[in-house]
Design a protein that fits this description.
eight-stranded mixed sheet, 2 domains, 12 helices, alpha/beta, Rossmann fold, 372 residues, single chain, seven-stranded mixed sheet, 15 strands
Amino acid sequence: MKVAVVKEIKPQESRVALTPAGVDRLVAAGHGVIVETGAGVGSSLPDSAYTRVGAVIAESAEAAWAEADMVVKVKEPLSSEWPMMRAGQILFTYLHLAADRALTDALMATGSHCFAYETLSVGGALPLLTPMSEVAGRMSIQAGAKCLERHQGGLGVLLGGVPGVAPARVLILGGGVVGTQAARMASGMGADVTILDLNLDRLRYLDEILPPNCRTLYSTPMAVRQALKSADLVVGAVLIPGGAAPKLVRREDLSLMKPGAVIVDVAVDQGGCIETCHPTTHDDPTFEVDGVVHYCVANMPGAVPRTSTFALSNATLPFVIELANKGAKVAIDTSDALASAANAVDGKLTCAPVGEAFGIESVDPRVVSQSL
C-alpha cells in the first residue's frame, strides 16, 4: 500500500503525522511512503530525514493525495483538501466530527474510509487521544497562567502566589487525562486546585495521587456554579468520546466569576464545555465575554510540535501499520480497535455519537464493511 504523509495546513499547526522512525517501520513492512515536501519542517524534521529511510518526497499536496491509498494526518482535512480525497481512499487522523457538521457531510460525500484517532478504543481507553490530552492538559495551565497576567486582560494574579500572598484558585472541570495533567501542573506550581468529576471511583483515585493542595469535588450544576465564584482560572476538560462536549458553564454563569478571570476550554475541538467558547488560533488565542478572558485554541499541542509529533507517532504507529497491512475492510472486520476508529466509511456515517450530535442516522461499520 502507498501511504502518504501530507503537510498540515491548519493555521499554526506544525505537527506531522509520522516521524522518520515511523516511516522506517512502514517501509520495512513492505509499504511505499510518500511525504509531502516540508511536512516535517515545523517539527524540525527535514525532508532528508525521511528520504534517508526510504520515503519519496512529493512536491505538492495534490501529488501526495493523488498517489496515496492511505493518507495519515494530524488534524482534520480542511475544505481545500476535500476535493483531493476520493472514494475508497483511507484517511487516518484526528477528525472531531461532532463539532463540525460541514466536515462530516463532506467526508461522507467523498466516499473515503475515514478513521479517527480520537475514537479508537482499546478496553475502554483511548490510546491515540491520550498523548495529546496529556500535552493539552499541561499546556492549559501554562496558557491560563499567562492569560492571568494583567497586560493579557487577566486579573494580574501569579498562579502560585508568593509567601504572604494567596495563590490563584484553579477550577478543573473533568478528571480524565486532560484534567489530571492540568491538576498536576497547577498544583505543582503552587495553585489552590479543585477538580470536579462525576465518577466517584475516579475522584477517589485522584484524591490518592494528587498533592494536598488539590481537592476533589463531585460535579453537579450547583457545585460548578458555586466554585466559579472563587475561581481565577477555569479549565474545561470534559470528554464524551466521539460526541459533543456537554455545556457545563452557561453564558449566565459568567456573571458569577471575577472580572479578569480566565477560562481555558480544552474541549473546544469537540464543541466546548463552556457555552461562550468558540475555536481560536495561536495567532489570536483569546477573546473576552462579560469580563472573562477565554482561551479556546483548538490545536493547543500544535504550539509544541516536536514534543507532540513524537508523542503522537509513538501511539499511532502500531495502528497505522495494522491499517496499512489489512486495508479498511479487513481492519474493520478483524480489529475492534480500528472498527471503533471508523467514523465514515464508503459514504456512510459509522460513529454513533456523531449521529446523535447531529440527529442523523449512523450505521455499524461492520455492516458497511460487508459491501466493501
